Structure to design on (252 residues):
């Protein structure tokens, strides 16, 4: 019995294109990996937000809390001491509302605490003249500062090539408590203090807890997974007779 010519288009069968298959085999795992990476980023950001909310609800930390081993990340703090305006760090390349500027950091001496505390007073706009550093009014005497404790988690660091400060104020590309010890030649508490807007000595304050919200990372993950699904469908269609079968059915 003879086989009718249209039978080959009624049954599914592969007609592989080696180049297209190779391209798909390279792209598909990449898209899946990017999707799961975004999900991991979402989980990481959610953990940070959970920690922030939990520590923000706790009572403000005092000097007694600083000597323990508690996790003080994002914890509100009320600390009394004197700020050293004679040795000031000017953190470079801080953009706020699309405008370049600096963040101003000074060392706080707290009575009864052997370590200094690095205080971030906030943001100031930069001059068009890079050689002109901002003129910031010093905070005189003993004051009670209010803010949130923060420990640098990492991220991009701008190499400024500074190993030893020869002249104050010093413009730096990055700073942490560990680096402050090198620059000041003194011991520093492992957390920095970012001032609240209503605190004495505060400039323009306000820092985002996370740069990208978890929901946005999840949305990016969905996009990568959808792209992987589309690629899979396109690969099956391009390497089989599905397109011919669809045309034949549409014509009947």
């Amino acid at each position: 019995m003879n086989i009718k010519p249209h039978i080959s288009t009624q049954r599914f069968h592969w007609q592989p294109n080696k180049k297209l298959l190779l391209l798909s085999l390279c792209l598909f795992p990449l898209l899946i990996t990017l999707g799961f990476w975004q999900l991991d980023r979402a989980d990481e950001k959610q953990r940070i937000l959970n920690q922030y909310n939990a520590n923000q609800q706790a009572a403000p930390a005092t000097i007694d809390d600083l000597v323990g081993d508690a996790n003080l990340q994002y914890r509100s703090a009320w600390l009394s001491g004197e700020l050293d305006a004679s040795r000031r760090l000017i953190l470079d390349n801080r953009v706020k509302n699309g405008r370049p500027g600096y963040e101003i950091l000074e060392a706080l001496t707290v009575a009864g605490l052997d370590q200094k505390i690095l205080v971030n007073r906030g943001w100031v706009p930069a001059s068009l003249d890079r050689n002109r550093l901002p003129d910031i009014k010093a905070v005189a005497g003993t004051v009670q500062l209010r803010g949130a404790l923060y420990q640098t988690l990492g991220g991009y660091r701008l190499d400024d090539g500074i190993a030893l400060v020869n002249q104050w104020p010093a413009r730096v590309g990055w700073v942490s408590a560990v680096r402050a010890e090198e620059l000041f030649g003194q011991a520093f508490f492992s957390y920095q203090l970012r001032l609240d807007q209503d605190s004495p000595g505060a400039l323009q304050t306000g820092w985002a807890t996370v740069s990208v919200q978890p929901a946005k990372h999840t949305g990016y993950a969905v996009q990568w997974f959808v792209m992987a699904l589309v690629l899979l469908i396109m690969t099956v269609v391009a390497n089989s007779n599905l397109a011919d079968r669809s045309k034949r059915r549409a014509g009947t």
About this structure: Residues 1-7 have pLDDT under 50 and may be disordered. The longest strand covers residues 76-96. The two ends are 25 Å apart (CA to CA). The helical segments are 7-10, 18-56, 63-66, 177-184, 214-238, 242-251.
